[in-house]
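Crash report, auto-generated. Payload:
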Amino acid sequence: MNTTTIKTLKTNGLTEELNRLIGKENVLFTLEDRICYAYDGSKQKYIPDVVALPQSTQHVSDILRFAHKHEIPVCPRGAGSGLTGGAVPVKGGIILDFTQMNHLLEIIPEDLTATVEPGIVTQTFQNKVAQYGLFYPPDPASAPFSTIGGNVAECSGGITGLKYGVTRDYILSLEVALADGSIIHTGRKTLKSVTGYDLTRLFVGSEGTLGVFTQITVKLLPLPEKIEALLIFFAKPQDAVLAANKIISNNLLPRALEFIDKSSIDCVRGYKQEIQIPGEVNAILLIDIDGKETSVKAEASLIEKIVAENHACNVVSAKNPKERDALWEVRRAISPALYHIAPYKINEDICVPRSRILEILDRIADIHKRYPSLKVASFGHIGDGNIHVNVMYDKEEQQQIMAERMIEEILRATVELGGTISGEHGIGNVKSRFLPLEVPPQELQIMKDIKHLLDPKGILNPGKMFG
Ligand SMILES: Cc1cc2nc3c(=O)[nH]c(=O)nc-3n(C[C@H](O)[C@H](O)[C@H](O)COP(=O)(O)OP(=O)(O)OC[C@H]3O[C@@H](n4cnc5c(N)ncnc54)[C@H](O)[C@@H]3O)c2cc1C
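Recovered output after restart:
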């Protein structure tokens, strides 16, 4: 990256050139505006030189052609909710804010497909397709504000992963602006296509480092008729984990299968009075079952039987959306409640084969013994083996250093158990130093070669993925 070029262009009119390319109403250059784009969910701060709000694929292509010529960094951005720094411009340059390219371009119910611009908010899109009786399953907890473009770039997961898979499982085709501004189309708008290499999958999860999505075609499913939720209390965490495994080994695939540990429960208890969790409860499973009304009913009673055999203390069931919402409030309350025990947290999203969940929880408990002044709370998508481990710490520098050491030990243990250091939040710049823990040198070099092939000048989201 050439910072001298940016400085020269700044003085010689980077903003003016963007004004000319996409119209000055689509360019933000004041410090006040640029500061708003200096952050994302990772809470870092890097101020961009200018912010562009493209309105069309042509705008994106023109900006990239210009940036490529002058070697200016370009950082695509959706809602800025990423947790690993994907949308922060660590090398300055241009932010490409996609929030105005947010249209639903096409729904073809008979094909079960839809095409969107990248800036559409995930939940807005889900609600729109629901009006046609259709379902877009990837459901990150950030769906009310994150964008489909950001979800594709991070290959986001969520609570529906066990039954329905993650974002990559729904992406059929992409329109991508490459680093030099040329436009390519990957895949087809068909439910099947095996022609050539799967470029679509290469771009999914590429965190804005290989190309910029300008249109996204997704696969849809019929909307399930009914959803029922079960909140299940356990005295022993091991029983909760074993019950989760038993549910799946009985050939049941719930829409969501979430685990909440004792520390998270303790936080929630003190956080909201309306959430009542009996004192003897040390672990919770939260389950959604969906499908036809009759099958939901049958599955729910089978699950109630299985958890009773596995020593559940109590089961609360929700049969309508309002009751379900109240049960899910327990899960939603965890993240804000955690800040009541310490002001800072590192939220990891490790994923292990489900059969090794108990082992990783034991390993985390052992590691925690070496850092007794830190607080740890784990919860998440046990059905996928994807656990959010939150290490909470106070302001002192020493606490932060310990928290980071503890995280590294947890990531190493995860890889040793055959798991991955990121199930859904991606690498960004926050986790780039850990990439070699999991990816061997030859595979890492192949990734770097692909990056160099598609972005030889390194202008697309520099500083991410490989540091
Ligand atoms: C409260 C909260 C809950 C969350 N829950 C989940 C969860 O359950 N599951 C999960 O997976 N994640 C979760 N996340 C993380 C985050 O919401 C996801 O990573 C989400 O996909 C980011 O979308 P965004 O629109 O905010 O993208 P941004 O944060 O703006 O960007 C993310 C990445 O996408 C790239 N990008 C954005 N648009 C484009 C584009 N058009 N072309 C190419 N690259 C692009 C950016 O450069 C960046 O690398 C959560 C975050 C928060 C704050």
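Post-recovery validation: The first strand starts at residue 27 and ends at 28.
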